[in-house]
Every structure is written in C-alpha cells, then in structure tokens.
Write a structure and sequence with these properties.
single chain; alpha+beta; Glutaredoxin; Glutathione S-transferase Yfyf (Class Pi), Chain A, domain 2; 4-stranded mixed beta sheet; 7 helices; globular; binds glutathione
C-alpha cells in the first residue's frame, strides 16, 4: 500500500494517524495534488489518495480510514453498531469541516493582500470553526474520549482538526473559549500515533 499526500495535508495526516493506531505498514509519497502520481490515480487530483496492494486507488480520507479499519480487525476504530457508527462518523464530519474552514483561511492568507477575498469570506469560515468547536466542546464535556469509553476515529478526527487549526490559523486563540477541548488536545496529541509527522 502507498499513501500519496504530504503530511502537512490535515486529511493525509488523519490517515497517517489511523495507520499508526492500527499498526498498518504503508509506504508514503510526499506527492502534491497536481503530481502525475496523484492525477493518474485520482480523477479529482486530491490528496490523500491510497494505492491499495491490488492497485486500486481510494480517495477521500473518510473512505480511506474506513478501508483501513476494515482490513485489520483490532483495534476497531469505527464501531460496528449502527447508532455508534453514525455518531463516530458525525464526529469525523465535524472534524473534516473544521479542517476545511481552516485550510480555506490559510490558502486565502497566502494570496496577495490586494486580491484576497473580503472580510465576509473570513467571517464565514471563522463561524464554521467557532460553531464546530462549540459543538465539540459540548459533546466532549468531561469525557476522556469523544465517543464512548475508548479511542476511536472520532478522536482522530477531533485531534487532527485541533492540530490543523494550530498550524493553519495559529493566532486563533481557541483554547480560552474551549477549555475542555484545550485539555483534551493536550492529552490526545501525546499519543504516539499523533507523532507520525
Ligand atoms: N474531503 C477530502 C479533502 C481532501 C483535500 O481537499 N485535500 C487537499 C489538500 S489538503 C487537496 O488535495 N486539494 C487540491 C484540490 O482541491 O484540488 C478528504 O477528506 O480527503
């Protein structure tokens, strides 16, 4: 198996954490979305793209993590029970949405100031992050893990989203407004799997 996509992509990083948590060996290629390797495998030219051992390409981090959880039984990071599965996937969507908004802001910040989109764009993305974190803060409460009593894809998604904000929007200062998430981030990012970067 080979994972295409630089670890600075938060979506690729999410897959790398999943690989590490599952103990799956995989080759990595620091390929950009427009590289020939990615465009040949993924019609959407996006990373992460996973090339499976049979040559099949999988894309979108959500599909890739589902695949990885399925090919190795333990530890199970996406619950099998329907309601729990949906709940964990909801956390995943929340994490991905916060990453989308953070990535959108950081991309815009790289544009020349004169051609940048206006304050409405920034306010819209910031609102997604603020409201997303507010739901995470409320749902996490004083639990040890995002869902249930053990580590799951919900934690990978939430942890990666919080790391993504720190990297992409470093001056956001979210920790004061979301103290439970701040404590959680401190704890969860100490897991070995989050040190794969
Ligand atoms: N929903 C996708 C998002 C992937 C994504 O947008 N990746 C960015 C890199 S961080 C990309 O490939 N951008 C190139 C493009 O959108 O053309 C996932 O979870 O994998």
């Amino acid at each position: 198996m080979k994972l295409l996509g630089p670890s600075r992509s938060p979506y690729a990083f999410k897959v790398m954490v999943m690989l590490a948590e599952k103990g799956i060996t995989c080759k990595f290629s620091d390929s950009s979305p427009s590289s020939p390797e990615v465009t040949a495998a993924n019609p959407l030219s996006k990373v992460p793209t996973l090339i499976c051992d049979d040559g099949k390409a999988l894309y979108d981090s959500s599909v890739i993590v589902e695949y990885l959880d399925g090919i190795v039984d333990s530890p199970k990071l996406i619950p099998e029970k329907f309601e729990e599965r949906v709940e964990v996937k909801r956390w995943e969507a929340l994490g991905n949405g916060v990453m989308d908004a953070s990535v959108a802001i950081s991309h815009e910040n790289r544009e020349p100031e004169a051609t940048r989109k206006g304050p409405d764009f920034y306010a819209k993305q910031q609102k997604k992050i603020d409201l997303g974190l507010a739901v995470m803060e409320k749902d996490l409460g004083d639990q040890r893990f995002c869902h249930g009593d053990r580590f799951s894809l919900a934690d990978i998604s939430c942890g990666c989203a919080l790391i993504c904000i720190d990297i992409r929007v470093p001056d956001m200062g979210w920790r004061e407004s979301f103290p439970a998430l701040a404590r959680y981030a401190e704890r969860i990012t100490k897991r070995t799997a989050f040190e794969v970067k």
